[in-house]
Amino acid sequence: MAHNGVVIEMRSLMNCGNRINVSTTDLYVDVGGEQLWIDVLNATLQYGLTPKSWTDYLYLTVGGTLSNAGISGQSFLYGPQISNVYEMDVITGRGETVTCSKHKNSELFFGVMGGLGQFGIITRARIALQTAPQKVKWVRMLYDDFSVFTKDQEHLISINNNESGHNHGLDYVEGSLMIDIHLTSLNNWRSSSFYSKRDYREIISLATKNDGKSNIIYCLEVAKYYDDLTVNTIDEELELLFNGLSYAPGFKFTKDVSYVDFLNRVRSGELELQKKGLWEVPHPWLNLFVPKSRISEFDSEIFHGILGKSRSAGPILVYPTYRNK
């Protein structure tokens, strides 16, 4: 990606045999940098285990996301994927294979993490695991006021683990924008399988309720994991967590899905776009960290200003995390 640089196709290492090895005693998985996250998920689930932090899209390589950071709606709780790696094997610019961790060759370790491939090639990563849930309560709540939307997001991520390590809060918090409801919502691959046609009619009415024009709608998207032991209490837990939230009345939508289906939810959207011939096209992508003190200004200048005028149809995500993660 640099002038006169080199791009390495890591998938060729798939021919090197089994490179996903799970330790059920020490709760980690050793993974080749060329492995896709969907394959890591399927391998660890055979032992009832799972990595803690994910990206929204699982058909990416382990080495690829660790070279960037690996951010998603779990980052507020566990940090990005690079915060959940114990050690790595790295091929340096000198052609040497070096094992590194926080305590061994630490300068290389922290340079490679999120280093965009500039400090070495990740050929193996040891990733932390935890017990895998079985099911997910997947909830979307809609807002027409950005300040209320962000206030509720910040409140939800503030409900953290207690001293025992048990998470009494949510497992996933994200958010997205619907900028031009009439143009994008009905065919939006992120939403087409979530809302019914009747839901869309109501969402359009929310977006146009004040002046008849299509206004921005903000979607707060959350998930709470559960299993057979908590199936009878999950709804009550969510009601307590949602107490005091100020989403638009009547605009809360809930789905029950498997853990795998939730984590792999973007795949169905990809397959839809492939059928329409819209996947093998350029996908310009930009990630930004915006400080809390400037996020309202960002909404005004970027969402309502630049993007509102351009009538953007691409997915736009906005969600909070902590600096210390």
Automatic annotation (TrEMBL):
Cofactor: FAD
GO BP terms, alphabetized: cytokinin metabolic process
Domain FAD-binding PCMH-type stretches: 1-132
Organism superkingdom: Eukaryota
Listed InterPro entries: Cytok_DH_C_sf, Cytokinin_DH_FAD/cytokin-bd, FAD-bd_PCMH, FAD-bd_PCMH-like_sf, FAD-bd_PCMH_sub2, FAD-linked_Oxase-like_C, FAD-linked_Oxidoreductases_BP, Oxid_FAD_bind_N
Keywords, comma-separated and alphabetical: FAD, Flavoprotein, Glycoprotein, Oxidoreductase, Signal
GO MF annotation, one: FAD binding
Top class in the EC scheme: oxidoreductase
Keyword set includes Glycoprotein: yes
One Pfam family linked to the record: FAD_binding_4
This protein's record includes keyword Ubl conjugation: no
SUPFAM superfamilies to which the protein is assigned, alphabetical: FAD-binding/transporter-associated domain-like (SSF56176), FAD-linked oxidases, C-terminal domain (SSF55103)
Catalytic activity line of the entry: N(6)-dimethylallyladenine + A + H2O = 3-methyl-2-butenal + adenine + AH2
Entry EC number(s): 1.5.99.12
Similarity comment: family membership: Belongs to the oxygen-dependent FAD-linked oxidoreductase family.
Official protein name in the record: cytokinin dehydrogenase
Record organism: Papaver somniferum
